[in-house]
Amino acid sequence: MKNPEAGTDAPAEGGPQPDRRDEAARASVAGSPSEPDGNANQGERAGKRRRRRKRGRKVFARDTVPVPAPQPEPRPAVVQSQARPGAEPAFAALDLGTNNCRLLVATPARPGQFRVVDAFSRIVRLGEGLSANGRLGTAAMDRAIEALKVCADKLQARPIRRARLIATEACRSADNGEEFLDRVREETGIRLQIIDRQTEARLAVSGCGTLVERGTDGVVLFDIGGGSSEVALVDLSRHRTPRLSDHIVSWTSLPVGVVSLAERFGGRHVDRAVFDAMVDDVSAHLTRFEGRHRLDAVRCGERFHLLGTSGTVTTLAGVHLGLARYDRRRVDGLWMDSPSVDAMIEKLLGWDFDQRVANPCIGPDRADLVLAGCAILQAIRAMWPADRLRVADRGLREGILTELMAEEGVWRRPRPEGRRP
């Protein structure tokens, strides 16, 4: 559900582009940066060269399709790794959202942490036009398929101990979502699982556990996605367990995200009236959330805060810091006070589309959606006022990896020899 950007207005020239953010520099779940083994893009190119040298392996050009187009040769399932024997098994998480296709591959590190060994992120705009006709478009599916082929190659390049490959709102709500998943399986070998909204909210919380400090009483964690936005209320005022998701007391999934909101209200030219109308639309959904008062007892003072794990808040943080190039290490875990958030939203409202495109933390792929995301953020802030907002450049994939590694017991301490169970 993180960094979804696409809108109603005509997309910027060139269409969807690879996400320019350094996905390979993802941090461990404890918040300290964990650098990958080499640059992800270099690894991708090297992997392609190695595969082409394999005897008998056919290589297909994916950028051009001859006419008539041949039927694609079935790919092996991603569990059939072609990695070198003896390589350390890794864990993998793939999230195909309304706007982005993202992959994270990691190996366990210190207890509660992991080391990223490969990553991939591409803006595919899978949900483009979905809110208008209820179906995934052919061009959008083609873009997603091409991105998933890259993911399949990466998953086959090393032994994978366990993987969870998920699809969220776009596939969940589209009339042809299951048909698309069948095509994904046939053309890439990847078997995607559509998760429900509650699972999506839980995974977002699990991925951000180490950004909630000791001494915190309550947190409203939100993930502003492309087609939906998840909100979880977390009560930590009593005994705290290692798993943050154990403390969710209420949650909701709003049927609005930056893609769907921008398609309805427009994303390129947003004045104050349009922005306020978007905020009112989201607020109406929040007022129907029956569990919204579950943190009222702990909402006072510095022991309560908001935690945002979406492209909207990371973009705001990048603009706030004045970054010449997006730097995840400076953004993830950043605290922003309420006046700073207000100032950044006002700043973006004062920029026209071209100015938003020119900002290195926004760019052409996010320029038509960032204000829709700000409207969702503003409605959340109005419902749960807080002095501070913490920014998380992490979410679903990190939550998946954390849960998979915990289930496999990779962080358990070995039992001393001679001790009886």
Question: Key terms for this structure?
Answer:
alpha/beta; Nucleotidyltransferase, domain 5; 2 domains; six-stranded mixed sheet; 11 strands
CATH superfamily of the largest domain: Exopolyphosphatase. Domain 2
Share of β-strand residues: 15-25%
CATH class of the largest domain: Alpha Beta
Please state the oligomeric state of the protein chains shown.
single chain
Can you tell me the CATH architecture of the largest domain?
A: 2-Layer Sandwich
Query: Do you know the CATH topology of the largest domain?
Result: Nucleotidyltransferase, domain 5
The chain-level mean pLDDT equals 83
Estimate the global geometry from the Cα principal axes. globular
The helix content is 25-40%
Total helices: the number is: 14
How many domains? The number is 2
What is the radius of gyration?
21 Å
Distance between the termini: 42 Å
Low-pLDDT residue spans: 1-18, 20-81
Strand runs, count: 11
How would you characterize the largest beta sheet? 6 strands, mixed
Structural class: alpha/beta
Strand order of the largest sheet: 8-7-6-9-11-10
Tell me what the structure shows.
The chain has helices at residues 40-53, 130-133, 138-156, 169-173, 177-188, 197-207, 258-265, 272-287, 311-321, 328-331, 338-349, 353-358, 370-383, 396-408, and strands at residues 90-96, 100-108, 114-123, 160-167, 193-194, 218-224, 229-235, 248-254, 304-308, 335-337, 388-391. By secondary structure, it is an alpha/beta fold. It is globular, with a radius of gyration of 21 Å. The relative contact order is 0.17.
